[in-house]
Amino acid sequence: MVQPNPTPAHVAARATRAADRAVPGEEVTGAEAIVRSLESVGAEVVFGIPGGAILPAYDPLMDSAKLRHILVRHEQGGGHAAQGYAHATGKVGVTMATSGPGATNLVTPLADAHMDSIPLVAITGQVGQALIGTDGFQEADIVGITMPVTKHSYLVTDPDEITRTIAEAFHIASTGRPGPVLVDIAKSAMQASTTFSWPQELALPGYHPVTKPHAKQIREAAKLLAVARRPVLYVGGGVVRSGASAALRRLVDLSGAAVVTTLMARGAVPDSHPQHLGMPGMHGTVPAVAALQKADLVVALGARFDDRVTGKLSSFAPHAAIVHADIDPAEIGKNRAVDVPIVGDLREVLGDLVPALEAEHAKVGRPDLAAWWHQLDTWRETYPLGFAPTGDGALAPQQVIARLGELAGPDAIFASGVGQHQMWAAQFIRYERPNTWLNSGGLGTMGFAVPAAMGAKVGEPDRPVWAIDGDGCFQMTNQELATCAINDIPIKVALINNSSLGMVRQWQTLFYDKRYSNTDLHTGQGTRRIPDFVKLADAYGCEGIRVEHERDVDAAIKRAQEIDDRPVVIDFNVSRDAMVWPMVASGVSNDDIQYARGISPAWDRED
Q1: Chain mean position to CA 528
Q2: Is the pTM value of this prediction over 0.70?
Q3: Catalytic residue among 115, 190, 503, 583
Q4: Which terminus of the chain faces fewer neighbouring Cβ atoms within 10 Å, N or C?
Q5: Domain final residue pick, 195, 224, 254
Q6: Is residue 275 among the annotated active site residues?
Q7: Which pLDDT tens digit goes with each residue over 84-134?
Q8: 187 has catalytic annotation
Q9: Both 376 and 420 in a single domain?
Q10: Nearest to 403 by CA among 466, 457, 475
Q11: Is 62 a catalytic residue?
Q12: Which residue numbers delimit the Thiamine pyrophosphate enzyme central domain (predicted)?
């Protein structure tokens, strides 16, 4: 295996060089100002690829004693790795790319981070100032291109603006509703001289995120929660982003309400908590979907009433009053009318709501929720998550993923791609703590898993990190296994290989009369495997394992967990006919959920 780690002598030499230029007010190049700014803001890791326009920054980066640069194989991989790092650690992820195609390859991870509120700073090189607007070689207006999918974008042509801009970028990315910020820096600004001076304060007129909720709104929410007979806490990813899981647990225990956690909030409340009904939405549990439909009060915490949760919006939670708390005021009332709007950071919202609810309980007593929980428990008993044996003798993907969760344990981090395997991982792995489930929720980006797992492992090197991927997703970004192997990042990949674009095939089965147009990938069934993932893993310096029989599942997972000096890829050959249930078809009411094919719960008969 290639060992790129520098020698102790090299580390000492570059630390000396860094110290030599660490005097505040010193004259430096713009490129050196970039590196010094990243060091000053506390960045630890940069995922990137050098190229012509960003090349000046790579020279001083080589001398930094504080920054670890990881050379990825594709800019999209670098962006998703920075996302995985940010999601697992709560810190701002950093990625770097050159101009033109290097920058445009970051559009997908920037859009992904924007949808899922991931704090990310992308630094891109731009052609020299004199060439901007001339269609120069590798020029692209990346600020204009990314403006709709970033929290903010900068174009820097003055070297004196580099330090302040990077300081602002990290502040904007990590405060309020987290998100991605792009800093595009002209090559001419990197090559020019400037004076390095770290700003002591930031002046950002118009950017003042509200974190402290209004006391009156908190009291109104507490009054509703204190008297509701069918309350549901609808928990979104904002709880995870704000680090509010502990405060949420206090509200859950105090209120006695049912809890549902969205795809982005898995782990915000332990799955083992008796009030937790699981995930709502298109592929949510029947009890979670039913609870929202029959609730008389829905308290939405860091959630955005997206279509995958609500189904047909006009029929969503029709009997419920709505309390909506979010750091982003633009989300409140965007999709669903709200009775009590609360703008604020979820840690502060929950920190105020708990004592307010205690005060209401002291006044009016605790609500009698026995009938509500009798109904919820009946749904849980009648419609548990499960799966049928496969008809073709291949592995059941749900069983593979369930065993992976059990054997890896609650401290493992799981990053998934997008599709059937993503839904099964959300359903069949039990999450007991936040920041253990990483996936592309809002944008639904295939290829997310491997680079995100890589970034998570860099940020949390002492925890096992599994990428749960499909054979379609895996072929979009598997080149980052080379990055992992070379840089000693021993992620583990559970490849749920059904030789198909599985979720698309499921829709073709259900809605297109089994006309399987262009969904066969030829990767896992029959004698011809294109590619052979075990050979591919070996070519990338990884351990490759193939599993075709149920009896070998546990042994393969245990073997992977014992290997810690290189990445591992397990090619699980699963049934291509397995489908994700329950399911609410796109655009229909949640009342029309199907528990399994042809089986629809009858809510009205169970009231």
Answers
A1: 35
A2: yes
A3: 503
A4: C
A5: 195
A6: no
A7: 999 999 999 999 999 999 999 999 999 999 999 999 999 999 999 999 999
A8: yes
A9: no
A10: 466
A11: no
A12: 218-353
